[in-house]
């Protein structure tokens, strides 16, 4: 005999289900866990790494810039209520894809922040090591790129929000 589902609709289940906004604390947790793992891996394997090029994290800047451009396009379409299937409107499926891109990019950015922060933490502890002196600027560039990507992704996700319902018409 099976027991009934304790979470049947309408029985006071206040918990939200579905996809909600990305929480900054979740991204911070991802960055911290990734940073600790990266620091441990770098600590024991740094001598096997090739030199880091200065622009190793430049792809994060490119992704952040693209997402900012997309955010402004989405924002203008949402604010002017140009959402629909007609030509020139933002298709709802495209909006959902853009939202998925924003969420994935926020996670990628958090992982990048963790990796670059873990590497930079290790490098800052290596005084008088020529390889570490060479790699520090690349780690800083990558860390800043990760932070910018998280910011751009969060902005893009914010721009994908549905507009508020219009206020009720008085006298109707």
TrEMBL record:
Keywords: Membrane, Transmembrane, Transmembrane helix
Transmembrane is among the record's keywords: yes
Annotated protein name in UniProt: DUF3180 domain-containing protein
Species of origin: Gordonia paraffinivorans NBRC 108238
Keyword Amino-acid biosynthesis applies: no
Organism lineage: Bacteria, Bacillati, Actinomycetota, Actinomycetes, Mycobacteriales
Transmembrane intervals: 27-46, 52-74, 95-117, 137-156
InterPro entries xrefs: DUF3180
């Amino acid at each position: 005999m099976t027991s009934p589902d304790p979470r049947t609709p309408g029985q006071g289940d206040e918990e939200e289900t579905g996809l909600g906004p990305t929480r900054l604390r979740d991204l911070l947790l991802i960055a911290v866990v990734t940073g600790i793992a990266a620091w441990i891996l770098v600590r024991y394997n740094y001598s096997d790494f090739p030199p880091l090029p200065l622009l190793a994290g430049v792809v994060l800047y490119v992704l952040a810039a693209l997402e900012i451009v997309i955010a402004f396009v989405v924002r203008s379409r949402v604010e002017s209520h140009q959402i629909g299937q007609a030509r020139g409107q933002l298709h709802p499926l495209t909006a959902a894809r853009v939202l998925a891109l924003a969420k994935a990019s926020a996670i990628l950015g958090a992982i990048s922040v963790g990796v670059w922060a873990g590497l930079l933490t290790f490098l800052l502890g290596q005084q008088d090591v020529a390889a570490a002196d060479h790699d520090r600027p690349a780690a800083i560039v990558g860390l800043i790129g990760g932070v910018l990507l998280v910011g751009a992704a969060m902005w893009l996700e914010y721009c994908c929000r549905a507009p508020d319902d219009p206020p009720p018409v008085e006298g109707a």
